[in-house]
Amino acid sequence: MNTRHDPESRRGVLFAAGAYVLWGLLPVYWKALIAASPTEILAHRMVWSLVFVVLILAVRQNLAWLGPALQDRRTLLTFSVSSVLLSVNWGIYIWAVNTGHIVETSLGYFISPLLISLLGMLFLRERLRPLQIGAFALALVGVLWLTFSHGEFPWIALSLAGTWGVYGLIRKTASLGSLQGLTVETLVVLPFAILYLLYLEYVGVGTFGHLGAGFTLLLVSVGIATATPLLLFASAARRVTLTTVGLMQYIAPTIQFLIGTLVYGEVVSQSKLLGFVFVWTGLLIYSVEAVYQSTRIAGVGQATPAE
After folding, report:
1. Residue 127 pLDDT > 90, yes or no?
2. Longest CA–CA separation in the chain, Å
3. d(CA 228, CA 3)
4. Which of 41, 99, 111 shows the shortest CA–CA distance to 260?
5. Which of 53, 120, 237, 306 has its CA 20 to 30 A from that of 213?
6. How far apart are CA 307 and CA 303, in angstroms?
7. Closest CA to 283 of 84, 174, 136
8. Is 102 exposed, middle or buried (0-12, 13-18, 19+ CB in 10 A)?
9. CA geometry: angle at 174 spanning 177 and 118, to 5°?
């Protein structure tokens, strides 16, 4: 029976890998847009993401849900909050990349899975197993080491991890899927994004249409760069286990770390690397424990006779 599902599983793994590789390569994209301010890039990302996602939903004839969702006060409030968190996360990320802090952004996304587990324990009454607690403690030691050994609080990493963690918590309990949710989130901030872009044009500092067709195309394509990994991720989640998807999420920050150090020459001192080692060790323990628990539960399920 398992053989029949193997092609779908392999396809799911490829989709997940594609999503995380694209997310990992985003710093290169933001660097290509460095002539625009981070806030202008963010505004374009909101506008063109909405355009692209609505086109996808229209092709799929999947827009009937939008009217009722916008009329539901609870849904609108939930996604208004998540849109603010997403905007802050995206804004910090773009700014950090284009000011030479790619390595620290990778640290933020390494920490995120552990923080999401902690938030699940605090707000969703999920229980952390002993090894998970140990993994979180090691990551915390790494963050504290980075703070005190350098005399500088790693606010970029923790801001990214914090906003993404709370965003994930909200989305986990929300009623809409990934593409539908992104549609509402970008729709909520659309007026502010358009007004800001018009303001930039009014004061003469906007870059859209002023730096050549190639640059303008890159700005428009941020919608594709945003939605494509989400589509791949959604396809992967339907085909493979969440444990598999969860373990593969470290592909993105690993690529970011390598891009920051090898491509853009960001220096990582031995002292700073030690802090990363604590975080990586915590993630390794967390991942191995997750695989063990998943395998054990699957084994128990197979051993239990069907009724």
Report:
1. no
2. 72
3. 29
4. 99
5. 53
6. 12
7. 136
8. buried
9. 110
Residue type, position 102, single letter: I
SS3 72: coil
70 contacts 130 by C-beta, under 8 angstroms: no
The token duo for 135 is 């993994």
Residue 270 to residue 160: CA distance in whole angstroms: 23
To the nearest 10 degrees (0 to 180), the angle between helices 38-59 and 222-237 is 50
**176 touches 184 (CB < 8 A):** yes
**Tens of pLDDT, residues 212-256:** 999 999 999 999 999 899 888 878 877 877 667 777 888 999 999
Q: Does the CA dihedral 6-306-289-122 come out positive or negative?
A: positive
Judged against a pLDDT cut of 90, whether residue 261 lies above it is answered with yes
Tokens of 300: 């128990």
- The residue count for the chain: 307
Alpha-carbon distance of 124 to 173, in angstroms, equals 9
CA 36 vs CA 87, 91, 139, 256, 260: distances in Å: 17, 13, 35, 21, 20
Residue 128 contacts residue 117 (beta carbons within 8 Å): yes
Sign for the pseudo-dihedral over CA of 292, 294, 298, 303: positive
**Residue 221 corresponds to which amino acid?**
S
183: left (phi over 0), alpha (psi -120 to 50) or beta: alpha
Give 13-68 pLDDT, tens digit per residue.
898 899 999 999 999 999 999 999 999 999 999 999 999 999 999 998 889 999 99
CA atoms in the 13 A half-sphere facing the CB of 43:
19
